[in-house]
Amino acid sequence: MTAKAHSADENFPGPAFGGDPIITALLREAIENDLTAIQSRTVRAVWFDGRRVRDIALLEKVSEQTVRRRLAQSYGKLRSALRYAVRYSQLRGQYDDAA
After folding, report:
1. pTM of the entire structure?
2. What mean pLDDT do residues 61-83 have?
3. Were both Cys, which of 15, 25, 40, 99 would link to 35 (CB 3.0–4.6 Å)?
4. How many helices (H) and strands (E) does the chain have?
5. Taking residues 50-73, what's their average pLDDT?
6. How buried is residue 26: exposed, middle or buried, by Cβ count under 10 Å (0-12/13-18/19+)?
7. In a domain, 2, yes or no
8. Is 67 within the bounds of a domain?
């Protein structure tokens, strides 16, 4: 089973934060600074280039499971790095709704 191809415009996590440009910028910065070069390359291939896990595995001559593991580790690091940004986004939404 392979991962579904993603469109960078539709599936980049920025829209999960209401398209907040600050959160999107923080996410891009975290990808560059908090991930290893291999993890960053893999996340970018999926999110920005719309590549499938299978295609990445073939290009890098690794198993699909290796690519999935890289993605899972990357997502964990990004969640950890951005936990306060996510909280900011949630709180901001509450204040915007109250206004």
Report:
1. 0.68
2. 93
3. 40
4. 6, 0
5. 96
6. buried
7. no
8. yes
